[in-house]
Design a protein that fits this description.
Elements (H helix, E strand, L loop, with lengths): L13 H7 L4 H13 L3 H4 L7 E4 L2 E7 L6 E6 L4 H9 L5 H15 L6 H14 L4 H8 L3 H8 L4 H13 L5 H11 L5
Antiparallel strand pairs: 1-2, 2-3
């Protein structure tokens, strides 16, 4: 099972419900920014329109994590850019203001315990489910691999070992690799 104990695991219906519960393009831009980037609240209060980087027909949002000083970057969907730009153009609030707003939108959408960290957790889980190796997700999220394992994933021992082997070999898990997982676990009977 992929998931963490502190934050709810949000399915595909999460984003449409959250967007439907928004009262303005500013709120929709906030939700899209969090959903697609998974950035920390401390980064959210620092991004502006100047954080957008255009390369050809693609637009990225770029920010620096204060804790690690890592520069992070995320490709944004073209159809979401108008709302994201409205959000980025607004005067910034303190993180508690964003969390209050996110919680209000989440409650209106039928979700409990929604915060900026819920979006971060969801982004991490989506990356793992989309095929990123667990050993590489920390690069995407801008944290150490230990943090990813400890805070953002709760996987079975088999899933963790499969992901490690896939990452080490740079390939999909084949029957041969499955046998290697079983061998590494010392559980030939499985």
């Amino acid at each position: 099972m992929v998931g963490a104990t502190k934050y709810p695991i949000l399915d595909e219906a999460f984003l449409p419900k959250m967007i439907e519960a928004c009262d303005s393009d500013f709120e929709r831009g906030l939700i899209y920014t969090l959903y697609y980037t998974g950035m920390h609240g401390s980064c959210l209060i620092q991004v502006t329109k100047n954080s957008l980087v255009k390369e050809g027909d693609k637009t990225y949002i770029q920010w620096t994590r204060p804790k690690t000083s890592k520069t992070m970057r995320c490709l944004l969907p073209k159809d979401k850019l108008p709302a994201i730009k409205i959000f980025l153009d607004h005067p910034k609030k303190i993180i508690q203001g964003y969390n209050f707003l996110i919680k209000r939108i989440g409650n209106a959408a039928g979700f409990e315990r929604i915060s900026t960290m819920t979006f971060r957790h969801t982004r991490c889980i989506r990356a793992i489910k989309d095929g990123y190796d667990v050993s590489n997700v920390h690069h995407l999220m801008g944290c150490t691999s230990d943090v990813v394992f400890r805070n953002y994933t709760k996987m079975t021992e088999d899933q963790l070992e499969e992901s490690r082997i896939r990452g080490a070999k740079g390939m999909e898990l084949t029957e041969g690799l499955k046998a290697e997982v079983i061998k590494n676990r010392g559980d030939e009977a499985r």
